[in-house]
Amino acid sequence: MDIIKSSPGSRLLKKINSKSSRTRPFKVAILGQNGVGKTAFTVRFCTRRYIGDYDPDLERIYTCQRVIQDTPVDFEVWDTAGVNENSRLKEQIRWADAIILVYDVTDRCSFNECTRLKFLINSFSRKSRWKILSDSSSDVIGGIPVALVGNKADREKDRMVHPEEGTNRAVQLKCVRFHEVSVQEEIDDVITVFEDLYIIYRKMKKFRVSLSSSKTSLTEEKLVSSSDDDPEECEARSRSGDFRRGTIISDPDNVSSSGDISCRPRSRRREAIYTMS
Ligand SMILES: Nc1nc2c(ncn2[C@@H]2O[C@H](COP(=O)(O)OP(=O)(O)OP(=O)(O)O)[C@@H](O)[C@H]2O)c(=O)[nH]1
């Protein structure tokens, strides 16, 4: 027995086992039009630093670890280069466990681009991994969790997109969260976006596992009972001013019912994996 243990084959097996027992990273793709601040946002989260200017053609997967609810979580964040070609997007969307759609509050085009991107996310995401209910109800909880984020909130004078519009668009597009941030000025809001999304992802996953294991047939009525999907409630919140930079539109405890809770890149672009401590 000892001989088998120390043989090269068993050493290899041991290595494979220890690798597979490591926690799987949480993969987040950052999508959005050129210049909205995707790289600044990603680097801020991974390093806490704000760096003003980046090579727009540089595309990277950053890795870092954060402790969320007393658990260490490995993040892989794919900072896309804003090319938004459909074939490229498909690869990014299929790679990701969750997606952050970023727009610039001073640029309405970038806001509209998020609608197109969400449409593509819906059509490209690996629905099969979530599909455990009937077709109609899987639309309610199926798909990948997507957060909508308006960046550059510090540029109030140049603002073109108001927070209410962001909130309403997030509801329309069935995003699980809406945030406004200033990557330049505030790090905590940036961290909240990622942590929130992770918490939502975990809850969605747990919910689906428990559904599939118990083979419970949930009615669509139960699934959509949360007010998070209610555009009227959302509008009421907007009217009452219940939004601010960094505010979220739904409660993590209701994640299972919050709307569309629905590879490494190979391209001519330069790529790298960066590990942040
Ligand atoms: N005022 C302000 N400027 C910001 C903020 N975040 C990013 N920027 C600036 O916006 C510009 C674009 O930022 P990037 O991070 O390169 O944007 P990107 O989306 O990665 O751009 P591409 O790589 O071309 O897709 C840079 O000059 C940043 O300094 C912010 O919160 N406030």
UniProtKB/TrEMBL annotation:
Enzyme Commission number(s) of this protein: 3.6.5.2
Biased segments, Basic and acidic residues type: 234-245
Molecular function GO terms recorded: G protein activity; GTP binding
Presence of keyword Hydrolase: yes
Pfam families: Ras
Keyword annotations from UniProtKB, A to Z: Hydrolase
Region (Disordered): 220-277
Reactions that this protein is recorded to catalyse: GTP + H2O = GDP + phosphate + H(+)
Superkingdom of the organism of origin: Eukaryota
Similarity comment: Belongs to the small GTPase superfamily. Ras family.
Name of the protein described by the UniProt record: small monomeric GTPase
